[in-house]
Amino acid sequence: MTGTIKGAMRTRLVSAMLLSLLLAGCATAPRARYSPHPAYRVATATQSSSAPIEEISPIPAVSVAAAGVQYHTVKKGETLWSISKMYGVDMDLLAGTNSISDNSSINKGQILKIPSSSGARPRTVDYHSAKKAYFSWPVRGSVISRFGDKAEGSVNKGIDICAAEGRNVSASRPGRVVYCDSYLKGFGQTVIIDHLDGYQTVYSYNSDILVKVGDTVRQNQVIAKVGQSGRAKQPMLHFEIRRDGEPQDPARYLVN
């Protein structure tokens, strides 16, 4: 009975997210003004075969205590999201406590204050075996429109990554495919993956889709090909991360 209720809740959540995508536009045109930060350059991993969803392991932490306050020293490849998962704290609370606005503010060796209200303790596991807990970049290319950018009267709910036509688009995390179609107005060929923990990822403007609804996918498994469908004005991928249906800034989750 519990499984049936949870399944129904996930179905309603995905349906609500699809409706919000239909009602809300996103920025697609390349912007003439670029951020002062260098454009992202990312690389995808090799394709792996479809398999059952892997259990997400916690990320190790390095922490020190001072006068009852808990701190964390940032390791290479860590993100706000992965650190918040380690300590079981809300990511926005963690960011606010440390005056962090985006992932570019996180650097190796930086010391973060963990919100004292959590009373959380990091769990130490093998770092290399836990890499699958991250959100990985879905395609190799340059970010030409960031989260919150405005263009043509709409606000970008994710990021737009310029990439070569036909380049592989990979799953950012393990999950189950819940949507594969081109019915979302303006988004073109779109794939939506439910990660079964309150998070979903959206991949739009594709030329080809290589998975079907119901498939389970591994992190970095190729799911589509970069295209120029929907309202895209050049070959690119529109990528979103949503938490309980609400758009999140991918820069706070993706590993640089």
Describe the structure.
This protein is of the alpha+beta class. It has two domains: 2-53 and 134-252, Glucose Permease (Domain IIA) (Distorted Sandwich), CATH 2.70.70.10; 63-124, Membrane-bound Lytic Murein Transglycosylase D, Chain A. 14% of the residues lie in helices and 27% in strands. It has helices spanning 2-23, 80-87, 91-97, and strands at residues 63-66, 69-73, 111-114, 142-145, 150-151, 154-155, 159-162, 168-170, 175-181, 189-194, 199-209, 216-217, 222-226, 236-243, 246-248. The strands form three sheets. Strands 4, 7, 8, 9, 10, 11, 12, 13, 14 and 15 form a ten-stranded antiparallel β-sheet that branches. The chain has a three-stranded antiparallel β-sheet with strand order 1-2-3, with no helix packed on it. Strands 5-6 form a two-stranded antiparallel sheet. The chain is globular. The chain starts with a helix and ends in an 8-residue tail after the last strand.
Itemize the secondary structure elements and their pairings.
Layout: H1 2-23, E1 63-66, E2 69-73, H2 80-87, H3 91-97, E3 111-114, E4 142-145, E5 150-151, E6 154-155, E7 159-162, E8 168-170, E9 175-181, E10 189-194, E11 199-209, E12 216-217, E13 222-226, E14 236-243, E15 246-248
